[in-house]
User: Fold these one by one.
Assistant:
Number 1:
Amino acid sequence: MRTYTNVKDLGDLNAAVKEALEIKKNRYAYKHLGENKTLLMVFFNSSLRTRLSTQKAGMNLGMNTMVLDINQGAWKLETERGVIMDGDKSEHILEAIPVMGSYCDIIGVRAFAQFENKEDDYQEKILNQFIKYSGKPVFSMEAATGHPLQAFADLITIEEYKKSARPKVVMTWAPHPKALPQAVPNSFADFMNEADVDFVITHPEGYDLDTKFVRGARVEYNQDKALEGADFVYAKNWAAYTDPNYGKILSKDMSWTVTTQKMALTNNAYFMHCLPVRRNMIVSDDVIESPQSIVIPEATNREISAQTVIKRMLESL
Ligand code: AN0
Ligand code: CP
């Protein structure tokens, strides 16, 4: 595997989940693979889970791991060609990327949508420059339009907790005070559309996601209706995608918060969220603390999704 940016990169999805569950049973079985190999993780944005779980995954595989926070300690990077660099940016990404690539064997990149220019975000300008200029296998640790390590961990978690062959999985928008990217819902939809689940997306009008990710999924604008009979409720906020509102907050409607009353509409569903989550905006204390909340096992599986991807990349070196 040379790149990991979306569900297609995993090939046969059932085989990938099976491999992940095997790795989970004995996560040190492949320690020899990473001997004398270096993983570089580059962060343009903050992280708790991705930083720790991906580093742990690399260590499980016997790799050395290095972490660079671009905005804390590294030079500020210019990302556009042709700019006269007389401002606060000391280095161009076109030098920085091959230099970073020369010190490692595999690179993970976190570079969120900036909400300044929709085309730049949806063309994955930063991630794609790493793929093009680093000379090394590159995986997304949440880029502008996707968070495939999260969605893979989500699928592994659903596989572990499902009680029927084809569970109903409902992804619901929920309110949040700040504009958040569409990366997490895009990737979750990308994966659920390929998985053997009954997938429904619910959000207020105006929050439609890119059809490239929604594909054939059912979209229901009435949250209560969507939640009926759900086996898994996957909550997430995102800012508007469609023009002319790209990156804007259109609603903070608290009637979309996932509460005990909302969960009562479901088939005793499990509650999921990628974290970090704002309590009593996205989800009530009661729901996230309930026995049906699987947010911690979900986060725990981030180590496993990362390890599966990095293992495949090591095997391709
Ligand atoms: C980010 C997002 O919504 O994309 C990261 C989630 C994994 N969340 C925040 O910035 C709060
Ligand atoms: N879910 C997730 O990616 O969390 P972090 O932003 O803390 O890495």
Number 2:
Amino acid sequence: MKVWINGNLVEKEKASISVLDHGVLYGDGVFEGIRIYNGKIFQCDAHMDRLFASAEGIRLPVPLTKQEIVDAMYETIAADGISDGYIRLIVTRGPGTLGLNPFECSGGSVIIIADQIALYPPEMYENGLNVIIAKTRRISSEMLSPAVKSCNYLNNIMARAEAVDAGAAEAIMLNADGIIAEATGDNVFIVSEGTAITPPTEADILIGITRKVVIDLCSDLDIPMSERAVTVEQLYSADECFLTGTAAEVIAVTKVDGKVIGSGKAGAITKKLLAAFRQFIQTECGK
Ligand code: PMP
């Protein structure tokens, strides 16, 4: 497996960065998780826009243009012959001093890792995930914009650890006000009386690219849709719940904190949106 670092494709064993890189010292950097379907980068422009917006959000100059990064991603997948897989794209602050000052760093590293993706098994898309609501809250916008996809994922990781402790597949995080924000690596939707509802950006979420595709699909399919606050009670009593994300795509949630959601199986609207999402991939990537 080859890794692209600052212009060079190297074997993964030789792919290394400085221990003084603030990405290592402080999680000071931004990243994207991107799907490759049929040799094409899915939602490429959206990922590039979010990467650059994240970088701007932490005042990190990206040392390459969007087009240079796209070219480097294609070079990386070609090197390993990957036609269906996943790219992890990282921009770090670069090597600096042991102090926090980001402006003493000598320039960011761009890293591209392409690999296969471990999907949830097909039966999980039918039977749905068992999730918990984590005690760990999502970082609020007063602390750091949740729209920044930063390399510092510790609050999500602590929530995910709670899920592991509980034997659950995922954890849903509340924001500081105690309303639903998102899962540790996915956005959340519920379906209530035929309407798909997802927390708005003000609920302290990462603005997911899959979430946006699904919102647009709701409109195409005439499924009523609303971006509004979702309470824990509304989640427990929803007819359906599902998560959206680059890796998971669209996956049902059928148990939250031990309570069965809807019929206990993937609901009709969830299935319809998953089928439409897979169709959308075919249209965009010709798969
Ligand atoms: N929320 C968080 C915290 C995430 O890490 C991700 C995955 N990038 C998502 C939501 C889903 O975003 P996307 O659909 O862009 O993968």
